[in-house]
Design a protein that fits this description.
two-stranded antiparallel ribbon; single chain; five-stranded mixed beta sheet; 60s Ribosomal Protein L30, Chain: A; 28% helix
Length: 154
Amino acid sequence: MKVAIGQDSHRIDYQNKEKKLLLGGIEFQEDYSLSGNSDADVVLHAITNAISGITCKNILGKAADDMCKNGIIDSEEYVKEALKYLEEEIVHISISIECQTPKITPKIEEMRNNIARILQIKENCVGITATTGEGLTEFGKGNGVSVFVCLTVE
C-alpha cells in the first residue's frame, strides 16, 4: 500500500464573470471563479498532485502548462494524464476543502459521483469534507479555496 497527499489552492477571481466555478468537475452557480490558467478546478488539481505523489511523475507544472498552451484547460484531463502513470489500484481518496464560499455541502454527492467516475472507483471510496476553518485563514475569509487530498493505493 502507498499513501500520498495532494494539495492545491487558488485565489477567488471576483472580476472574471465569464469563467465558470468548477470544483471536482462540478459547476457551482456563483458570480465568480477561481484564478488560474486552466479552468482552475482546485479539487482536481489536488487529486492530480496526490496521484503524482504516488507515481513520482509531476503533471501540474510543465506538463499541464504545455496542455494549456495546446488549448486543454479542462482539469479532468490533468487527472487522466496523471492516471496514465499509476500502476496501483486506488483504494480510497479523502478530500478536505477549506473555504468560506461557495458552500460545498449541497454539492458533495454530485462531486463524489463525478470523482468516482474519473478515477474509476466506487462512490463509497470517495470522502469529501468541507470547513471554513473558523475564518482563521485567507480561505476561510473568502479569498480563495484550499484543498488537501489523501490518496491510498494498493
